[in-house]
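Backbone-to-sequence.
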């Protein structure tokens, strides 16, 4: 479960919203750091397989924004 503090951190990424956070939570991502170094297409594929939710290119771009934030905050940027 994503706690309120982590949820607030994730919501700082451009275009991220509660629905995407719910998708991430459903596939086991609980912290922003879990996304550092990840590939948006792989996360999107996991969402598609687990939830049957096909993310279009805009959804993948939202994931990229979140991954960029995770990379910046973890010093991987």
């Amino acid at each position: 479960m994503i706690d309120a503090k982590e949820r607030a951190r994730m919501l700082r990424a451009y275009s991220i919203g509660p629905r995407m956070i719910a998708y991430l939570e459903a596939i086991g991502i609980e912290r922003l750091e879990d996304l550092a170094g990840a590939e948006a297409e792989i996360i999107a594929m996991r969402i598609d397989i687990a939830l049957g939710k096909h993310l279009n290119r805009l959804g993948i771009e939202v994931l990229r924004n979140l991954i960029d934030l995770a990379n910046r905050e973890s010093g991987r940027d």
